[in-house]
Amino acid sequence: MNVPEYSAPPSADGPSQRRVVDALLRHLPSHAVLWTDESTTPYECDGLTAYRQRPLAVALPETDAQVQQVLRTCHALQVPVVARGAGTGLSGGAMPHARGVTLSLAKFNRILAIDPAARTALVQAGVRNLAISEAAAPHGLYYAPDPSSQIACTIGGNVAENSGGVHCLKYGLTVHNVLKVKGYSVEGDAVEFGSDALDTAGLDLLAILNGSEGMLAVTTEVTVRLIPKPQLARCIMASFDDMRRAGDAVAAIIAAGIIPAGLEMMDRPMTAAVEDFVHAGYDLAAEAILLCESDGTPHEVEEEIGRMREVLLRCGATAITVSVDEAERLRFWSGRKNAFPASGRISPDYMCMDSTIPRKRLADILLAIQAMERKYGLRCVNVFHAGDGNLHPLILFDANDPDQLHRCERFGADILETSVAMGGTVTGEHGVGVEKLNSMCVQFTAEEREAMLAVKRAFDPAGLLNPGKVIPSLHRCAEYGRVVIRGSQGQGWSHPDLPRF
Ligand SMILES: Cc1cc2nc3c(=O)[nH]c(=O)nc-3n(C[C@H](O)[C@H](O)[C@H](O)COP(=O)(O)OP(=O)(O)OC[C@H]3O[C@@H](n4cnc5c(N)ncnc54)[C@H](O)[C@@H]3O)c2cc1C
Question: Counting Cβ atoms within 10 Å, is residue 433 exposed (0-12), middle (13-18) or buried (19+)?
């Protein structure tokens, strides 16, 4: 057998690749440790493809004992560990560390139990989001949080990002649908957060784990809530000839006391890209379209659809179509669910921002983004969870052109910082990762960031779990402040310390 050469040179800042790989191979079979350039390259980035870094090694454990040994080995060698699910994250959260081990949970893909009486599912961390609902379907149940990436993303990644989706407006984010998480600490000790009961005593560490982006523990098992599938769901597609009227309609629906099962918005460039791809039947003349879903009993749905139709017409909708059957409803949503891949067809690369703003400012931010397109000379298409005020501007660019990448970064930073200025936050559901580190300096004070670092240190004193992500250092923010914050807002700042391809 040809044994490949170790590819990374010994590092002055940590143990050599040879030492790390040899140590891992003491506990894992050879097929479960990757270290050649060829075999680690597929892991070099997540969905934020502009930033790439090969790890020293990738470990693919199959058992809890192996996860434990990977963590113990890395801890003993003081080597960083980056947990990885499906790598669909959009903020660089699973981007490897140059001197670290990427710990893939891909082989933790078993559904361990569905309990229809308790309405729960116990699944391994690498189980795909959609696979949970598929397994629960024979019991008339499903798992509600539905990221558009649900065909691929894992429940471990969902917990780490506190992921959302179209139906989270009504049914809550991941944090509201997870009962218990089991896993391992950075030292390789078994840990458990939450319980099978409704609540646990003491501090709510389960809530802290949700959205912690792999910085506090490695998840191996998750217990999620399941809910009954609604008897009926129908979807309204409403057209608007004006962005402001569409944005105001979203706020008006919620203000009318309606919580739709989904309330999504797309602008004209986005519907054009989507229509060309999946032929969902969208109104291409509209400046913006809204998709408003109602679910429940037939009586509840009819009543709610009627109320939403009234509000939409009052807010200036130019056309309204209500799905007549399940096939049409799914066709309306197929466009929304395929919006990101559709963007990939019209541009070599896209960067998806993820800020959240108060709903009443939707139109303001969308018009501000249009002005930014002219300022930075780049196109931007919009598709987003309008009911949550959670934006997803996709900035289109070519990452092979350094100037375009730089302008894209500045454009993105401008959107995030304008969102903060409008009373919002820099991320709704995609996490901070490496992408929004600088914007965290704008949103949070030094004291607030220090409180986050203190939590991180309590779980991981040596800072080995996913280092360099989520919480910017004081030094970084001081630098960023010197370059940007004290100057005009929204100039952005590229990531000098991030490897690009
Ligand atoms: C086309 C597309 C559409 C998307 N739509 C949505 C959407 O609607 N809503 C939404 O919220 N997101 C969306 N996303 C983003 C992404 O799918 C989610 O963030 C998802 O939760 C990531 O899961 P993953 O398994 O791919 O995790 P990864 O990308 O592999 O990892 C994400 C983070 O979780 C950590 N992590 C992963 N597994 C574990 C574990 N077992 N233990 C500890 N830490 C772990 C990683 O270290 C990293 O920080 C979309 C992405 C794409 C590409």
Answer: buried
Query: Are the beta carbons of 127 and 109 closer than 8 angstroms?
Result: yes
Cα(143)–Cα(121) distance, integer angstroms: 9
| Gap between the Cα atoms of 119 and 227, Å rounded | 7
Ligand 1: nearest atom to the Cα of 174: 11
User: What is the predicted pLDDT for the residue at 486?
Assistant: 40
Single-letter amino acid code for the residue at 386: A
- Tokens representing residue 216 in the block: 């506090």
- For the full predicted model, state whether its pTM sits above 0.90: yes
Query: Which of these, 137, 146, 138, lies nearest to 164 by C-alpha position?
Result: 146
Which residue is it, tokens 């057998």? 1
Per-residue pLDDT tens for 385-417? Answer: 999 999 999 999 999 999 999 999 999 999 999
Q: How far apart are CA 380 and CA 412, in angstroms?
A: 10
Beta strands in 269-415 (DSSP E): 288-296, 319-322, 349-352, 380-384, 393-397
Neighbours of 153 (CB within 10 A): 23
Furthest CA-CA distance within the chain: 73
> What's the CA-to-centroid distance between 147 and ligand 1, angstroms?
9
Q: Are 368 and 418 in contact (CB under 8 A)?
A: yes
Angle separating helix axes 326-337 and 339-346, nearest 10 degrees: 50
Q: Compute the half-sphere exposure of residue 127: CA atoms within 13 Å on the CB side of its CA.
A: 23
**88 CA to centre of ligand 1 in angstroms:** 5
- Beta bridge partners, 223, equal 122, 180
477 to each of 126, 444, 485, how far by Cα in Å? Answer: 34, 10, 9
C-alpha span between 398 and 50 (Å, rounded): 9
Q: Are 251 and 359 spatial neighbours (Cβ–Cβ below 8 Å)?
A: yes
The predicted-structure confidence for 292-306, as pLDDT tens digits, reads as follows 999 999 999 999 999
Length of the chain: 501
Which element (helix H / strand E) includes 385?
none
**Residue of minimum CA distance from atom 36 in ligand 1:** 157
Report which protein residue has its CA nearest ligand 1's atom 6.
147
Of the candidates 113, 133, 103, 125, the residue with the CA atom closest to the CA atom of residue 24: 103
Ligand 1 site-directed mutation target among 81, 149, 176, 337, most atoms within 8 Å of CB: 149
Q: Residue holding tokens 């032929």?
A: 279
Distance, CA of 148 to CA of 169 (rounded, Å): 14
pLDDT band at 252 (very low <50, low <70, confident <90, very high): very high
Q: Is the CB of 211 under 6 A from ligand 1?
A: no
* 161 CA to centre of ligand 1 in angstroms: 6
